[in-house]
Specification:
Layout: H1 7-17, H2 32-39, H3 49-62, E1 68-70, E2 73-77, E3 80-88, E4 106-114, E5 118-126, E6 139-141, E7 158-163, E8 167-174, E9 195-203, E10 207-215, E11 218-219, E12 239-240, E13 244-254, E14 258-268, H4 286-289, E15 303-316, E16 319-329, H5 333-338, E17 347-360, E18 363-374, E19 389-393, E20 402-406, E21 415-426, E22 429-440, H6 453-456, E23 466-480, E24 485-497, E25 504-517
Antiparallel strand pairs: 1-2, 2-4, 3-4, 3-6, 3-25, 4-5, 5-7, 7-8, 8-9, 9-10, 10-13, 11-12, 13-14, 14-15, 15-16, 16-17, 17-18, 18-21, 19-20, 21-22, 22-23, 23-24, 24-25
Length: 518
């Protein structure tokens, strides 16, 4: 299973897009067999040096054998050691590099293979809890300096899977990301630290079907709600483990140049696993199902829908256009005319970009420009349990904190973001940079859904916006190739104009790390 964030995925998309084809489905984790199905059909004659080097390297990795093999059983262990230090000039600003971008001190990935069809993986780790990075210090490190803030949720990756030349099944805990977005994706994004899920995929060269079921516990203490939105009675649901997202996705590629992905899903806020939502031929599952569950409070629905459309079009010359649209609520003109004070606000999001993949002086390179718009009430519905929110418990024993993120776009709702960036690789050097502008409204991860004409008319960004300019760069150097020792250096700068006060703050952040893979 090739995971989210693995450099192999960059190699994979580079080979296809620089071949003037579109990628059928960017929905990692992907199986090695699924990637080989696409790569074996690419013509290899008259290719650039960067393309040939990438192709040879990727085919070798995807066809590799376990390091220990005994008949039908195989095992691979490649311990990873990473040491990182970082500094920021303004401790009043959040760290720009999230904890997912900061490596664990020690990772012991255990991989098991059975008869070329079954696979299992579990990562034993020593790393800091995410709350470790939310302090007010100007410096940070991935060294476990505070035992109480070790991440006790280990493992963050542990699953079993099975598959073959046309199918795969995965059950367990892993990261997920559906789409071609570089800054995030609108439906299923890598924003959460992990998902607990089961996923079935059926694939061929130009078609793929995926069924995803993920369990999403949710607890809602008072600080989860915006002012005035917290329930006042003791009978309103505050916690459940029986909260599931069911998602179906169909990917189709036409003429090898146009890829279309359609996703349809439903969040069921408090119910055991239900068979009816597993049926891929029942479209728009929650159209009537909201009647089947007790209300949350006096008016909250316990189910919510999500529909999305993904497009990728290979124009030629290594240039591709891509886009996403997502909806969890739409106020029709008829509803606005007849029920203006009782209508739900729109929950729409849009992402679009252009990308170039090619050989630049022997460097495997891609450049991109991406734009994102999300409504103030995207991902939020009339109850928090029907909303598209993910939660995990943090490890700090004294505070028992909860961590909330969106399932979709990292910045969530109520934002406009523009990003220009690139990444280049030529062994042993990798270079990347990104220039971003973010205009974010006053709606946050806190639940504050409301209906009526005022909510329907709200635009993005809402209220007094917060504005951010940032530029980030990273340099990687593979010092000793056989030993897989790599140094990374990252430099980032941000200008932040805060909500309400309009105060402008500037900050610089620097990080350096060394990775050794045994």
């Amino acid at each position: 299973m090739i995971e989210v964030g693995d450099p192999i995925l960059e190699d994979y998309t580079f080979l296809i897009r620089s071949s003037e084809e579109s990628v059928l489905s960017v929905t990692p984790p992907l199986t090695s067999e699924e990637m080989l199905v696409q790569l074996r059909k690419l013509p290899v004659a008259n290719r650039s040096p960067a393309w040939r080097d990438t192709y040879a390297r990727l085919m070798q990795i995807l066809s590799a054998n376990p390091i220990l093999k005994d008949g039908s059983f195989g095992i691979t262990v490649h311990p990873e050691l990473a040491v990182e230090g970082r500094w920021r000039s303004n401790a009043d600003l959040d760290w720009l590099r999230e904890e997912k971008q900061n490596p664990a001190l020690l990772t012991l990935p255990l991989e098991f293979f059975f008869a070329n069809s079954l696979y299992a993986r579990g990562d034993l780790i020593i790393r800091n809890d995410p709350s470790f990075y939310n302090d007010d210090k100007p410096y940070g490190t991935n060294l476990p300096l505070d035992v109480q803030k070790l991440d006790a949720n280990m493992p963050l990756k542990a699953f079993v899977s099975a598959g073959g030349p046309w199918w795969s099944f995965q059950l367990g805990r892993d990261r997920l990301s559906f789409g071609s977005g570089h800054t995030g994706n609108l439906t299923i994004s890598d924003t959460p630290d992990f998902y607990d899920f089961a996923r079935l995929s059926l694939f061929s060269t130009n078609f793929k079907y995926s069924l995803l079921v993920t369990q999403l516990s949710l607890e809602t203490p008072d600080y989860f709600y915006a002012s005035g939105f917290s329930p006042t009675d003791d009978t309103t649901l505050r916690y459940t483990n029986q909260r599931y997202l069911y998602l179906h996705r169909w990917d189709l590629r036409l003429w090898k140049r146009l890829s279309i992905g359609v996703s349809e899903g439903v969040m069921v806020g408090n119910s055991p696993l239900e068979l009816r939502f597993l049926n891929p031929l029942t479209i728009y599952h929650s159209f009537f199902s909201w009647n089947d569950y007790p209300r949350w409070g006096t008016s909250g629905d316990m189910t919510g829908s999500m529909v999305s459309l993904d497009l990728e079009w290979a124009l030629g010359g290594g240039i591709s256009l891509y886009g996403q649209a997502v909806m969890n609520q739409f106020a029709t003109p008829y509803e606005l005319e007849h029920w203006p004070e009782d209508n739900s606000p729109n929950g729409l999001g849009w992402l679009g970009g252009v990308e170039y993949n090619g050989d630049v002086a022997g460097w495997r390179s891609f450049f991109y420009f991406e734009a994102v718009y999300t409504d103030p009430y995207l991902y939020v519905l009339s109850s928090p349990f029907a909303s598209f929110i993910w939660m995990r418990r943090l490890s700090e024993l004294t505070s028992k904190q909860l961590r909330y993120t969106w399932i979709g776009y990292p910045e969530g709702r109520d934002c406009i973001e523009l990003t220009l960036g690139s990444k280049m690789f030529k062994s042993p050097i990798s270079l990347s940079w990104a220039l971003s502008y973010l205009d974010r409204g006053e709606h946050t991860i806190q639940w504050d859904w409301k209906k009526g004409s005022a909510a329907v008319q709200e635009g993005t960004p809402s209220g007094t916006a917060e504005r951010n300019w940032s530029i980030a760069s990273e340099l990687g150097w593979q010092v000793i190739k056989p030993l897989r020792l790599t140094f990374f250096g990252a430099l980032q700068w941000v200008q932040n104009v805060a909500h309400q006060s309009g105060t402008t703050a500037f900050g610089t952040e620097f990080a350096v790390s060394a990775h050794y893979i045994f």
